[in-house]
Write a structure and sequence with these properties.
The protein has about 280 residues and is an alpha/beta fold. About 30% of the residues lie in helices and about 20% in strands. Strands 3-2-1-4-5-6-7-8 form an eight-stranded mixed β-sheet, sandwiched between helices. The termini are close together. InterPro entries: SAM-dependent_MTases_sf. This is Methylase.
């Protein structure tokens, strides 16, 4: 692994993003975090401080951070959420929306929060960086986590109908999740445009993620007759088919029909880990 590049003392690590955001853009990821890591948040209640979640790089509006806070409070009523943004004007604009348990601060990948967070959501913040920089920022984020924590790093389309994200623990990447609105794609490989930075340039022959997407497309085509019962049933059947040859998660909380019916599919990172990457996994 390449070492994470530190910023200047007292200066946030990272660069300002375009800041594009909007209501419900990240709801697919929020739903997944609440279902998969809700137990982690509730387990954090036994400590002296409430469980902490960071929304890194929330953009020009506070809205997706506020939505994350609202959704996580349903599964853990004492969770605290901090929106971290490198642009001071965006932080100032979000400050009026603070409330008990929800706050906004200026910062970057160094995570300027009072204690190690259990969860960091970092969406649409790494696409502007080179691949080596993305690996380094993964390392920096993992270094700031609670020992039991997780980073959920990904990217999505402008209105959130196509998304992918990686879950990273202190030990490294754990899973890769694809999520889509059933009317938002023609075939599963359309989601490749939203792959995380560490994979998007690896979608070429000879790389596992390319082979997986090709097989998933074939499964989708084979299961076309199930489309008569709706795209949801076709997605579920295609997931069952591709799971015969790939280590698709088939059990809760990350897999199985309960997640597939929502337009999700998750694999362990080991199934798509890039060949010849500089990340070391």
């Amino acid at each position: 692994m390449r070492p994470a590049r530190p910023g200047r003392p007292g200066r946030p690590v990272g660069a300002v993003t375009r800041g594009t955001t909007g209501h419900n853009r990240l709801r697919r990821c929020d739903r997944w975090i609440a279902a998969v890591y809700g137990p982690l948040l509730r387990s954090g209640r036994a400590g002296t401080a409430p469980p902490l979640v960071v929304d890194l790089g929330y953009g020009a509006s506070h809205v997706t951070t506020t939505e994350l806070f609202t959704r996580l409070r349903r599964v853990c009523p004492v969770v605290e959420v901090v929106g971290v943004e490198i642009d001071p004007e965006r932080v100032a604009a979000a400050k009026p929306y603070e409330r008990e348990g929800l706050s906004f601060v200026r910062g970057g990948f160094e995570l300027p929060v009072p204690r190690p967070p259990l969860i960091v959501r970092a969406f649409n913040v790494l696409r502007q960086y080179g691949e080596d920089e993305a690996w380094a920022h993964w390392d920096l984020l993992r270094a700031g986590l609670h020992p039991s924590g997780v980073v959920v790093e990904g990217t999505c389309s402008e209105i959130g109908h196509r998304a992918t994200w990686v879950a990273l623990g202190a030990e490294g990447p754990r899973t890769l999740t694809f999520a889509a609105r059933f009317t938002g794609f023609g075939r599963p490989s359309d989601l490749a445009e939203r792959l995380p930075k560490t994979l998007i340039h690896r979608n070429v022959p000879g790389q596992p993620v390319h082979a997986f997407l090709a097989d998933w497309d074939r499964a989708w085509a084979t299961c076309a007759p199930f489309g008569a019962y709706g795209a949801r049933q076709r997605w579920i059947k295609a997931a069952e088919l591709v799971a015969r040859d790939w280590p698709v998660e088939t059990l809760p909380p990350t897999g199985g029909p309960g997640r597939w019916r929502l337009g999700e599919l998750t694999l362990p990172w080991s199934g798509v880990s890039p060949v010849g990457s500089s990340g070391g996994w």
